[in-house]
Amino acid sequence: MTTHDQDSHLFETLHHDRPAGAFTPVDAYGASVDEDTGDAPVFTVSGGDWNDLVDEATALHEERIVVNMGPQHPSTHGVLRLILELDGETVTEARAGIGYLHTGIEKNMEYRTWVQGVTFCTRMDYLTPMMNEAAFCLSVERLLGITDSIPERASIIRVMMMELTRVNSHLVALGTGGLELGATTVMTVGFRERERILRVFEAITGLRMNNSYIRPGGVAQDVPHGAVDMVREVVDELRDGLHELELLLNENPLLRGRTVGVGYLDLTGCISLGVTGPVLRATGLPHDLRKSSPYCGYETYDFEVVTRTGCDAYDRLRIRIDEMYESLKIVLQALDRLQRTEGQPVMVEDKKIAWPAQLAIGGDGMGNSLDHIREIMGTSMESLIHHFKLVTEGFRVPPGQAYVPVESAKGELGCHLVSDGGTRPYRAHFRDPSFNNLQSVAAMCEGGQVADVIVAVASIDPVMGGVDR
């Protein structure tokens, strides 16, 4: 509702069946009021949507156009709607319309056990499933009071998977952004390299996306035999692919002409709008939760927080490329630690919390191993009962609330959980970086050209699964 909308409700005056001179209404717009009858003008103010903008533009007889870009448009990163008011090729007003995806993830989590919540949140930002799962599980573990009890090997695996996820997300950002600018080769190279990471995810978790791999207390299962060597080989291949992307992008005069100075947002604007991630670091501020508020042992890894000072789309692109190199550096350190901790547990010892299943990847995908099923079905009635109760009912979490943020590929991703002492969340809410970062669309686009809107949105890299959750 606009300000005029609110004023019209406050100051509208009915002028029927009113005794003369009974009162003198106050008119917020300074119009005259009939002292004898008490009649006053009635203001009807409405709108703010696309059709109303068109009618307003027509009534003013100005040569301006209101363009409705999306929600189904190849340059709006999913079901994002952009309402653009144009004066020729110049954008005079830009609005971002959200809410077209309607996943209902947070509400659905209130009706599932704590472990089942992982299968929901992993689908929010579907390009960073491991970060979504980590934020949720770290919050659950804080409520349970077992943060310090998570096995070292589980934290190492979490770090490795999250950093591979970061590279995966940045590759999609560069690939789709390049495609929207007409650079098809950037997209094919980016998705070729991403495929290597998805094969690693499938080998370790059984799924390419929406993995539900990080669980409260640790991870679903240890990395399979040969995974360490596989990841080392993939890291070498990714380095070659990233170098190819650098040759295509960094000093490309066409790319620089389209991105340098485009989508400008300085530090003041980022702080005012709550923008984080590469967009914030492109202003020169080295804010990274892996350094400022470490989790999963990030304080023990050697890496740099990449910053630039151009505050534009070009610097955000360069930051993502450099961050991928830093992520691969972290992955190699994690692989060394995995070799050192081979054979150690990947789930907390408390059997009232630890998921009891022994998983295996078979011909029909990942599930309980047949050996484990035979054991609990044929030899141990207690194991079968425990398995049944923990899977169907779930574990109880003490009453309280917790908020744990992680550094997602797009910025600060936080999970706020409230427990009433039951087996499912009383309330779950996520601070998704794409939601906050989208608030900068107007600041980035107004005053620029229509073609620059596509560049600006691509530099934000929003994923609507995290926005409309």
Strand and helix layout:
Elements: H1 3-11, H2 50-59, E1 65-69, E2 81-87, E3 90-97, H3 105-109, H4 117-121, H5 129-144, H6 152-180, H7 184-205, E4 214-215, E5 218-219, H8 227-249, H9 253-259, H10 267-273, H11 278-281, H12 289-292, H13 313-340, E6 359-362, E7 365-368, H14 370-378, H15 381-392, E8 400-408, E9 411-419, E10 427-431, H16 433-437, H17 441-445, H18 450-460, H19 464-467
Antiparallel strand pairs: 1-2, 2-3, 4-5, 6-7, 8-9, 9-10
Helix pairs in contact: 5-6, 6-7, 6-13, 6-18, 7-8, 8-13, 13-18
Summarize the structure.
This protein has 469 residues and is an alpha+beta fold. The protein is 46% helix and 12% strand.
Descriptive account of the structure:
The chain contains 19 helices and 10 strands. It is an alpha+beta fold and 469 residues long. Strands 1-2-3 form a 3-stranded antiparallel beta sheet. The chain has a 3-stranded antiparallel beta sheet with strand order 8-9-10. The protein has a two-stranded antiparallel ribbon with strand order 4-5. Strand 4 and strand 5 form a beta hairpin. The longest helix has 29 residues. The radius of gyration is 27 Å and the shape is globular.
